[in-house]
Amino acid sequence: MPELPEVETIKETLKEKLVNHKIVDISIRYPNLIEYPNALQFEKQIIGETIHNLERRGKWILFELDHYYLLSHLRMEGRYLFRSSNDPIEKHEHISFLLENGMELRYKDTRKFGRMHLIEKEKLYNQKPLSELGLEPWDTKLTGKYLEEKLKTKTIPIKTSLLDQGIITGIGNIYANEILYLSKINPLKASNQIPIKKLNTIILNTRKVLEEAIHQGGTTIRSYEASEGVHGRFQQNLYVHGRQNETCVTCGSTIMKITVGGRGTYYCPKCQK
Predict the structure, then answer these.
(1) Which among 143, 161, 213, 269 is placed 20 to 30 Å from 93, CA to CA?
(2) Residues 6 or more apart whose Cβ sits within 8 Å of residue 203
(3) Residues in CB range of 159: below 8 A, 6 or more apart
(4) 82 vs 98: CA distance, rounded Å
(5) Whole-structure pTM value
């Protein structure tokens, strides 16, 4: 699943080609991708809107239009493609946005897990999904005290808490593994048992890992690519994720893989006691 760095890369790539272009038509071939409003209303409201900017909140891409924000979550394998309006529709291309210059922005999603919302601008942060999100990693309100308050009643593993989008938004499985490794924290450690000094370390490493991943264009895992011709390179810098049975670069121990909250979790048993 694309995480914050991948979504940031996709957002910047799309912005270069979409800003100041008007949506003149839309074709929705799989209505279940539209979460709000219903597909018929979505189509009616978005036609005629101009794309003014693209932003990101957590793992959501925000297309700023005249009167609305189009929110798009890629989930597992969603991606955007640029095509000519004359190009044939290929399998799994479920939504096409026709622009006034004849170009089409097509949303392709093999698993059909992605979701879209069209929300009036003044309601953007007052209703789901954005109203449920926690702080961005670079928000000045993200402090050790903030995490201590959020985690004080949580006995679940810290790995699970890092994936909670209502606490810090944008972190997914790959980067949670990397953050905990750099912080020297065992992924199974109870969230409410981590001292504030270590919580501050988590924040510092969250920013460090995500900034480096953005710089490298995100992480390409399996079928994910930021866009055609844009490939993440951060996978070359992963310390533990996907490296089970390999040697820890810090201590020489063997990297282990376990399951935490249903997610594959990689860690060094010596560095992360």
Answers:
(1) 213
(2) 137, 142, 143, 144, 147
(3) 176, 177, 180, 187, 188, 260, 261, 263, 265
(4) 10
(5) 0.91
Q: Which residues are catalytic?
A: 2-3, 59, 263
How many Å apart are CA 176 and CA 169, to the nearest integer?
A: 12
* Total residue count of the chain as it appears in this document: 273
What is the sign, positive or negative, of the torsion defined by CA atoms of 219, 221, 226, 229? Answer: positive
Full pLDDT tens readout for the chain, 273 residues: 688 998 998 999 899 999 999 999 999 999 999 999 999 999 999 999 999 999 999 999 999 999 999 999 999 889 999 999 999 999 999 999 999 999 999 999 999 999 999 999 999 999 999 999 999 999 999 999 999 999 999 999 999 999 999 999 999 999 999 999 999 999 999 999 999 999 999 999 999 999 998 888 755 544 444 455 444 444 557 999 999 999 999 999 999 999 999 999 999 999 999
